[in-house]
């Protein structure tokens, strides 16, 4: 038996005894332990929530996030937690399958064909990509369902057009509000126009309604002997920006008292237009602030419902976002500072996100770690905590964070990869990234230009060190190119509408 399993800190106070949460994988005939209920799992995913939006990460935030801050105090806060992609669907696919978006071809957000979303083009056509989850393979829900878990999905899915691609076909017993759309079709106030959610009374707020649905499920789970996996996937704080009027007015009044400073700054851009690309640099959008407070309030209500039903000590709670905050592009919702960029970009502002794991009884609770983590790690970590043999699940690209939760932070550094061969709605460059230890290498796909940052000393990515450290650039470039080959990475394509640009740059793999 693995020492990491035996020594796990995941313990529950049940019947006055500290019991290992990994009882299911223990081989010794200890009937009392083996018959204990497996841990419940509450996975909370907030859409477009920025790293700098949450006070536990950014004490200077202008938003109110006491519930998320409290959850951070009850769990392990990953300062360097990453979304698998700078946009939503790829990260969601990675989270639910444990596979890197590039490995399964889901490298851009899935279009809602009923709304005629188009694929953006520039000098070149974007890479081809897949708009559905793999037909063969496991999800967290299907694996846990096989272990006797009750499984439920609530909120934003955005992983397929047809009903056969929605949560109930990927291991979830219950699907409330999950369908093709990436934003609420009818907005945040009823009527919702959602095929998986009956509409509420006029004026009902979607974030409140989804939380009510989750609390109702928790009430039912409290009466059951079977463990549960509940994925609470809020549509907030994605556009359209809509918040309760009273709360919006509160922030409008509060922000009016602040010293007037420029709200936007110009950033680099690739679109052939004279209109400058702007980045929000202060958190003074009152509607967005209201939406953050509202989702925070509801996260608190949901976690409190576990406590009210005496389930909190039996439940792993995980909180993360699907990409960085929307600071550039269609809405300029928030500011990602001190991080550079935002949603749609592979600078830190687009991929570094709130990332908290709360394991009852863990000695790491209330602490933080700078060990990098990524969306795919969630499935591997849950399987390890619950005691599920990863070999039976099949290959996944994430690694278990249980050693980090146990305080074992001296393991060998591993590279993290990000690959976005598309033109983002937010004006982001098509690029790839490898982060290894303190270093982050960015490779641009139109021209092959390389940037190197010491991300530990310079998380704002202000100083490109590529010219100063050519050996480090060559080493990391080789690692990245090997990863391209291993994952059949796709790149930009020639654009017949812009023949003057010819064929796009492609990496010389095998160098």
From TrEMBL:
Q: Which domain of life is it from?
A: Bacteria
Pfam families documented for this protein:
Sulfatase
Looking up SUPFAM superfamilies in the UniProt record yields:
Alkaline phosphatase-like
Q: Per the entry, which co-factors are needed?
A: Ca(2+)
Keyword presence, Hydrolase: yes
Keywords for the protein's UniProt record, in alphabetical order: Calcium, Hydrolase, Metal-binding, Signal
**Which InterPro entries is this protein grouped with?**
Alkaline_phosphatase_core_sf (IPR017850), Sulfatase (IPR050738), Sulfatase_CS (IPR024607), Sulfatase_N (IPR000917)
Span of domain Sulfatase N-terminal? 39-388
Q: Which family does it belong to?
A: Belongs to the sulfatase family.
Q: This chain belongs to which protein, by name?
A: Sulfatase
Q: Which organism is it from?
A: Psychrosphaera algicola
